[in-house]
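Subject: for your reference before the review

Hello V.,

The reviewers asked for a structural picture of the protein, and I figured it would be easier to keep everything in one thread rather than splitting it across files. Below is the amino acid sequence we used in the manuscript, unchanged from the supplementary table.
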Amino acid sequence: MDTESYNYAEQLVSVFRKAKWKIIETNRSFLDDIDSDVVVAITDNEQIEVANQIIFALNNVGIAAKKLTKIRENSFSGAQPNTIYLIVGAKK
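And here is what came back from the structure prediction:
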């Protein structure tokens, strides 16, 4: 929801765009249960390995990232199957 988090998310996403990943538009929802700089959420168990690699890479460059095992139902609109989401937390 806030501009700082949105701008940070856009900077992260630019890396994946440059790597030619299919990226959907950044969602500006507010989630109150994010307890890390970035949470990597998956919608299918087949994505676990890739999600773990993303978390490893982010942590290696000093971005606190961890996995969210399940996206809370109705937490944001437009969640799609077979999709990995990077959810950026807001400063407290």
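For the response letter, the relevant points are probably these. The longest strand covers residues 38-42. The chain has two helices and three strands.

Happy to draft the paragraph if you're swamped.

O.
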